[in-house]
Design brief:
The chain has 6 helices and 9 strands, in the order βααββαββαβαββαβ. The protein is α/β, with parallel strands linked by helices. The strands form 2 sheets. A 7-stranded mixed β-sheet has the order 2-8-7-3-6-4-5, with helices on both faces.
Length: 276
């Protein structure tokens, strides 16, 4: 299956089909994933830079990134955002956004426009190998998952620090990108990614991308987008950490499913393979 070109140009209808066995199948893989290469972090990787010049560079780059995102989202995808006013409930606090994973380029820019402040997104270390944008992802808010014990600790410390700074953590719980998918898949990691909001006693929101036909055909059959922000959903102080993780995972999933039903156009077709 084509990769970047899937999202940059209209493709023939007969090529817009993906046959899958399970919802954890990955239709789009990097070269490293296809070769089953284990990708780790560079030695001495800093999740939160200490150098003041690097911090200034990161802040400036994020502003440029968000400005370009305005053009890309609203210009290329004709994106409209709904429900951003709900984020006012988290004023004075950090929060976590959970989003459906259907377009790797929009999934970089979309949350920056949906959120009301700077975002930091959990990514796979493999994403650092993406030509061009991979090297700048850490400067615009990419937080790659650690592999070693020390990296995992540093990663968790960085997440907690960013949330304490009242920033936004963005998570794609479906894990794999399914191009233009209008449903919602089960979360492969279950409720594990909901621990960040629970242990910091912070609210979560969802961001659901939906797809619709364009009014003009300059880009062929390529869809346009509507994006829905929903929430907040809060941890319950009467529940245990495990119970709260399960609670928030269910609420996030149900919210994504509810808002995904606003999609009116299936550009890509997904067919489950029959069991032999």
């Amino acid at each position: 299956m084509a990769k970047a070109e899937l999202f940059q140009k209209d493709i023939p209808k007969e090529e817009r089909v993906f046959y899958y066995v399970s919802e954890e199948d990955d239709p789009i893989k990097t070269d490293e994933q296809e070769k089953k290469v284990e990708v780790g972090l560079p030695e001495g990787y800093e999740f939160i830079p200490k150098n003041p010049f690097v911090k200034m560079y990161s802040a400036a780059l994020f502003r440029i990134f968000k400005l370009f995102g305005q053009y890309y989202e609203r210009g290329y995808w004709k994106a409209k955002f709904y429900g951003r006013e709900k984020l006012k409930a988290a004023r004075g606090k950090g929060y976590v956004i959970y989003a459906n994973h259907t377009n790797p380029f929009h999934d970089v820019f979309g949350p920056a426009l949906a959120a009301d402040r700077r975002i930091f997104t959990i990514i796979s270390p493999v994403n650092l190998k993406i030509p061009g944008i991979g090297k700048v992802l850490p400067y615009i808010g990419g937080l790659p998952l650690g592999k070693t014990t020390d990296e995992k600790k540093a990663f968790n410390d960085a997440v907690d620090k960013r949330l304490a700074q009242k920033k936004v953590l963005v998570i794609y719980p479906e894990a794999h990108v399914w191009p233009y998918y209008t449903g919602v898949r089960k979360f492969p990691a279950g409720d594990r990614s909901f621990k960040y909001a629970v242990r910091n006693n912070l609210p979560i929101f969802t961001m659901t991308t939906t797809y619709h036909k364009r009014k003009n055909k300059k880009k062929g059959d390529l869809p346009r987008m509507d994006i829905y922000v929903d929430g907040p959903f809060w941890p319950d102080p009467k529940l245990s950490e495990d119970e709260n993780r399960a609670k928030l995972a269910e609420e996030a999933y149900n919210s994504l499913v509810k808002n995904s039903k606003n999609s009116t156009y299936d550009y890509f077709e997904y067919k489950k393979k029959a069991k032999k």
